[in-house]
Amino acid sequence: MPEAKGKLTESAVRVFLRESQEALALKNYFGGKVSPLSGQEYVIFPGQGKKPLSGVLAYQLLGWDSRLLGVKAARMLFIATRKNTLKRSSLYDNLIKDLLRRCRSAGVKIIFFRDPVGGRPLIFALKKNKARLISRTLNARLSFKEKISFEPKGMLIREPKKNEFKDICAIMASGYKNRLLRESRLDKNKVKRLYYQWAMNDLSGRVDTCLVACRKGRIAGFIAYDQRDFLGERYGFVDMIVVKKGERKHGIGMSLIKEAHKRLQSENKGIILNFESEHPGLKRFYEKAGFRVRETFNFYHLYP
Questions:
Q1: Three-state SS string across the chain, please?
Q2: pLDDT tens string for the chain (304 positions)?
Q3: How far is Cα 190 from Cα 167, in angstroms, rounded to an integer?
């Protein structure tokens, strides 16, 4: 199976993706843009007869994540196949097997994949290769036509000071939970270290805006967000929102959402965020804030 670099042009890949069976799902998932050859991505193209492309799988070695987790990790970005392909599940299977082979030779121990496509053929191929369904991610959007009636009391929302960064990161490390903590092959202390550094990166400028909520003079929670184009329209995107343990049920999260709403509404259509279905309280919270779940994605872990 030849690799893309030096074999096929980026324009040929883009044309293939636009005409693939999964084109609509990928367009929605990536907000209208799929760039398979950018950065450290690697693409697999198995040939089929005289056709140069019958399927594409893109993945990325995760240097930052690997260093913090102490385990070499990769991310499967997307998978696409030619329309009218017979035995699509078999093609998916071949692509995934080749990914596992390549990652195994590179020393990768775990592969993350948030599936934008779904469908029985892909699910069958993932199960065949012993992928573990570890989470379901809900994508929710808040339209600025929705008004948040909640009025915070005794709450100060402001930008963080640099000497507060470590305390904010500690709130993230102790209060944030996602699928990585459910992965038995990862050290939980190292996962929390990743959360800590993730927050530090956001505070240091990875996103446009970070805000903290102060209650009784102390930082009780924070939100980090930026602005992104999605299907030709501008949205605020919440990268993280965390409330300190012991400070929940006091309207802190709602206060942070309302402040982001106020700051973003003049230049954006709404706000987008993702959260896991394993935390039913989050769904109730975001629905109360006016968010509506638009899509659900399965999140898998694969083991080379």
A1: CCECCCCCCHHHHHHHHHCECCHHHHHHHCCCCCCCCCCCEEEECCCECCECCCEEEEEEEEHHHHHHHCCCEEEEEEEEEECCCCCHHHHHHHHHHHHHHHHHHCCCCEEEEEECCCCHHHHHHHHHCCCEEEEEEEEEEEECCCCCCCCCCCEEEECCCHHHHHHHHHHHHHHCCCHHHHCCCCCHHHHHHHHHHHHHHHHHHHCCEEEEEEECCEEEEEEEEEEEEECCEEEEEEEEEEECCCCCCCCHHHHHHHHHHHHHCCCCCEEEEEEECCCHHHHHHHHHCCCEEEEEEEEEEECC
A2: 334 443 556 677 778 888 888 888 887 776 655 555 454 465 665 555 556 678 888 898 999 999 999 999 999 988 989 888 888 999 999 999 999 999 999 999 999 999 988 889 999 999 999 999 999 999 999 988 767 666 667 789 999 999 999 999 999 999 898 999 999 999 999 999 999 999 999 999 999 999 999 998 999 999 999 999 887 889 999 999 999 988 888 899 999 999 999 999 988 999 999 999 888 888 899 999 899 999 899 999 999 9
A3: 18
Order of strands across the sheet that contains 292-302: 41-44, 55-62, 73-81, 110-115, 292-302, 132-143, 270-276, 233-243, 218-230, 209-215, 155-158
Nearest to 53 by CA among 82, 91, 84: 82
Which of 205, 263, 215, 268 lies closest to 239, judged by CA?
205
Cα within 13 Å of Cα(208), Cβ side:
11
Delineate the domains of the chain, giving CATH numbers in brackets: 10-130 (3.40.630.30), 140-297 (3.40.630.30)
Q: Which of 282, 150, 159 is nearest to 214 (CA)?
A: 159
